[in-house]
Design brief:
The complex is a heterodimer.
Chain A lengths: L3 E4 L2 E4 L5 E7 L5 E8 L3 E10 L2 E4 L6 E3 L9 E3 L8 E8 L8 E2 L3 E5 L1
Chain B lengths: L3 E3 L2 E5 L4 E6 L4 E9 L6 E6 L5 E4 L2 E6 L4 E6 L8 E9 L5 E3 L3 E6 L1
Parallel strand pairs in B: 2-11
Antiparallel strand pairs in B: 1-3, 3-8, 4-5, 4-9, 6-7, 7-8, 9-10, 9-11
Classes of the chains: A mainly beta, B mainly beta.
Chain lengths: 113, 110
């Protein structure tokens, strides 16, 4: 099993550009989530999904969209990137809900100029 | 809504003990603990699900006081490999959200 994979590993964007961060898991996990990590702020929940077709907002959802058309994939879209979105983004998955061990992907380091 | 972790940073010598605390203002269903090394993803340590539950993992253990909405992580006889940032994650009752604290940076020196 590859576990949780994220692409790209690094990305530089200009203000106003759009892009999609990819996240995939091959463990047949129902629960997937996106976090951003900034110095001194810990991990902040952006969006999460409890299964295919179901998504919900986390603590800091503004500026981000998600969809969950399959169990395996949970892409995160930035519609119009802003410098405030410069961060490290982690995708995580678990068997069901937040009550199970979260498996984290390796992260995507995003810089918005 | 983020749980509060204390202390923010700990410096230890090998063999010393440490306690990291996690406190939430919300009623909790579970508490998670993770460790993150610099430049890497967080790695799971343990989950506590029941009030008063305690768990152990080698020389790392944790407790969860459901009534006080608090959890503590105990590191005994610390090793160099314990260095990293420790995060507690709290699952608030009646939600599916796992919310993390701001982290506690632990450094162990020889």
């Amino acid at each position: 099993n590859a576990g949780v994979t994220q692409t790209p590993k690094f990305q530089v964007l200009k203000t106003g550009q759009s892009m999609t961060l990819q996240c995939a898991q091959d463990m047949n996990h129902e629960y997937m989530s996106w976090y951003r990590q900034d110095p001194g702020m810990g991990l902040r929940l952006i969006h999460y999904s409890v299964g295919a077709g179901i998504t919900d907002q986390g603590e800091v959802p503004n500026g981000y969209n998600v969809s969950r058309s399959t169990t395996e994939d949970f892409p995160l879209r930035l519609l119009s990137a802003a410098p405030s979105q410069t961060s490290v983004y982690f995708c995580a998955s678990s068997l069901t809900s937040g009550s199970h061990e979260q498996f984290f992907g390796p992260g995507t380091r995003l810089t918005v100029l | 809504q983020q749980p509060v972790q204390s202390p923010q940073a700990v410096i230890l010598r090998e063999g010393e003990d440490a306690v990291i605390n996690c406190s939430s203002s919300k009623a909790l269903y579970s508490v998670h603990w993770y460790r993150q090394k610099h430049g890497e993803a967080p790695v799971f340590l343990m989950i506590l699900l029941k009030g008063g539950e305690q768990k152990g993992h080698d020389k790392i253990s944790a407790s969860f006081n459901e009534k006080k909405q608090q959890s503590s992580l105990y590191l005994t006889a610390s090793q160099l490999s314990y260095s990293g940032t420790y995060f507690c994650g709290t699952e608030v009752r009646n939600t599916d959200k796992l919310i993390f604290g701001t982290g506690t940076r632990l450094q162990v020196f020889p």
